[in-house]
Amino acid sequence: MKPVTLKQIAETLDISITTVSKALKDYPDVSKKTKKLVKELAETLNYKPNVFAVNLRTKESKTIGLIIPEVVHHFFSNVIKGIIAQAEKKGYLVIILQSNESYELEKKQIDLLFSKRVDGILISLANGTGDFKHLNDLMAQDTPLVMFDKIAKIVNCSKVIINDRKAAYTATKHLIDSGCKRIAHFRGPLLPQNSIDRFLGYKQALTDNGFAYDPSLVYICDCSDQSFDEGKNSAKQLLEDHDDVDGIFINTDLVAIGALTEFQKQGISVPEDIAIVGFSNWFMSSVISPTLSTIDQPGFKMGKTAFKLLYKEIKSRKENLPIKFKTVELETKLIERESTRRFHQKV
Amino acid sequence: MKPVTLKQIAETLDISITTVSKALKDYPDVSKKTKKLVKELAETLNYKPNVFAVNLRTKESKTIGLIIPEVVHHFFSNVIKGIIAQAEKKGYLVIILQSNESYELEKKQIDLLFSKRVDGILISLANGTGDFKHLNDLMAQDTPLVMFDKIAKIVNCSKVIINDRKAAYTATKHLIDSGCKRIAHFRGPLLPQNSIDRFLGYKQALTDNGFAYDPSLVYICDCSDQSFDEGKNSAKQLLEDHDDVDGIFINTDLVAIGALTEFQKQGISVPEDIAIVGFSNWFMSSVISPTLSTIDQPGFKMGKTAFKLLYKEIKSRKENLPIKFKTVELETKLIERESTRRFHQKV
DNA sequence: CTGAAAGCGCTTACAG
DNA sequence: CTGAAAGCGCTTACAG
To answer: What span, in angstroms and rounded, lies between the C-alpha atoms of B81 and B92?
Structure first.
């Protein structure tokens, strides 16, 4: 059963294709009578305009691309949900690609989306991405790009972020206020801006509060899909290296939960022996035992905001208006739970 | 900067558009010399064929649609990952839509994807879907459809499933083997096939093993994004209604974890007082305390398999081969953890 | 109020 | 080996 075309409607009604097209789009210069006839027939025949032809004429696909490091991920899946929800409201569809934290894959995917002529791209960078030519090239070829969460400061485009540095500062300060005297940090990989910023926030909270910064207390976790195991391993290593650590600020909840599990296995009690603050507020963190103190990161809202910025840019471009890039910073908040509830807590 | 077209290459080289097109596609009837010239120029100019035009000519978009009830969901996000991975291998892109368990939304989304002329659709039905006209209409209009996980038996198309009934039987039998004497069931909503099948498996395990089936022990949970709270509420209700239940088979891990949390709050000990088996093997279930026994459901593999079936169908259609629908059943397995590890366990 | 015509950028059957 | 021409199904500036 072949799809219905304008031509068929035109022939059936014995009028021109032009008039059919105009009638369906409610052009003012078509008689009411003709419009009614056309619309009714289109309805009965279940006519749908051929988007391929429409795309070719209008040069837009009403589709955007999304490149995300990992789909099976509480935070990112919330972002995806936010993007899809907002896009649907505006009549846009979303193509999702997963970069697996790989720079090479990310590059290919940018290229792929570009050649599919999506109207714009939303991206959260892979951990492996240290070069940004692929992104600058993309924009030079007139494809709007908005970055979120894992961004590159150096790339000139719109961004949606949280203040990682401030949030990490708050988390570390919370450990200090809970009475911790020697605080370690499980950080993310070296490249991503957010793991750098979280590290810096940790460091500053220490020095601002009269603690010495000790690099041997900083452990690097890859934050790949092995996060949980990395948390376990770093915890094990920490116990071997230091017997005096009584607090850890950890880059991500999943890593923190790995650490928690290892501590429990080794009979280290959390929070009494070691207090822990994670980052991101995964759902899981509220149901494990002890429940995990963490920083709440608004994934759904970040997704919605990122799409909104992209949409504005797409619209401005179409109307030939000047485009100004914008960086939106979303609020985070500290969630205090059992993993930092110590008796000798400062009030 | 306007995208490069065949015409520009043709004019630059002073040959015809036809020849340029053929050269790029390695047609045998173009001279090597011409091919080389064309390809080199295309490379330098970073020529990408206009997919809109290609789609219009070839009548395919190399894009498929995916409708899924919920993105923020351990099982479904694994399915998504599997689908995207497999699709990318075959050069297909995936548009993702979330039905929010709503029949109305699902219908609209089927329509939307159809009007976008995706090459095929993958779907896991919404809980609210009890009528299948939208799906049959879609197929009648020549769009391949493959269902996975939440399927409708009555719809004639390819499917990827697990044997929910058998898995539920195994789970319930495991409770019996663990020494439970009175076993409740928190089931999913009434419509979806998998919650029906899991219920039937539960029931059959009871009767096969000399237990009386007692409808008052079956509680219905919506399994929406409120699953966790529903688990808590059903657990609360169960404690009010029955003081002799010592085992529960629960439709989904997230609901099970809600129940677990409520029991802990009320001082009911799991597994000693009440043993629990969940379903799906969410990551979370392996790290909460007590760890949750459950049925492992292969999400990633299900996604891959679903795409493979769809791909075959798309190919067969293109080659005008006959299409035979296929139902693939994937293996599940029981994961025994602390929530069923009782002392008076049968060996 | 209606319609002929050009064109979006490709692909491909056909002629030479 | 090369290319003129038709056509995919729309949209829209223009003429009447």
So the answer is: 14
DSSP notation for A105-158: HHHHHHHHHHHTT-SEEEE---TT----HHHHHHHHTT--EEEESS--TTS-SE
Q: Where are the domains of chain A?
A: 6-49, 58-156+299-330, 164-297+334-346
> Per residue in A226-262, pLDDT tens?
889 999 999 999 999 999 999 999 999 999 999 999 9
Quick one: pLDDT at residue B347?
45
Q: Which of A122, A121, A125, A123 is nearest to A103 (CA)?
A: A125
B114·A55 Cβ contact <8 A: no
Residue with minimal CA–C1' distance to D7 is B57
Question: Quick one: average pLDDT of B245-257?
Answer: 96
Two structure tokens written together for A309: 């910025």
What pLDDT is attached to residue A347? Answer: 45
| Tokens matching residue B236 | 């609360």
Per the DSSP assignment, residues forming a β-bridge with B296 are B280, B333
Residues of chain B positioned with their CB less than 8 A from the CB of A116: 51, 63, 93
Q: How many CB pairs under 8 A join A and B?
A: 113
Query: Residues A136, A157: contact at Cβ < 8 Å?
Result: no
Range A316-341 average pLDDT: 93
Cβ atoms < 10 Å from Cβ of B218: 14
Determine whether the distance from the CB of B224 to the nearest atom of strand D is below 7 Å: no
Pick the CATH number of B164-297+334-346 from 3.40.50.2300, 3.30.365.10, 3.40.1350.10, 3.30.565.10: 3.40.50.2300
A 152-211, residues with C-beta < 7 Å of strand C: none
Q: Which residues of B touch A85 (CB under 8 A)?
A: 98
pLDDT over 80 at A220, yes or no: yes
Residue A65, SS3 per DSSP: strand
pLDDT at B344: 55
Give the residue carrying structure tokens 């807590």: A345
Cα separation, B303 vs B308, whole angstroms: 9
The residues with which A185 forms a beta bridge, in sequence order, are: A218, A249
Give mean pLDDT, residues A137-157.
95
- Other beta carbons within 10 Å of B172: 27
Those residues with Cβ within 8 angstroms of residue A133's Cβ, 6 or more apart along the chain or in another chain: none
CATH topology of domain A58-156+299-330: Rossmann fold (3.40.50)
Q: Which residues of B touch A56 (CB under 8 A)?
A: 50, 52-53, 55-56
For strand C, the positions having any atom within 7 A of a protein Cβ are 1-5, 7-13
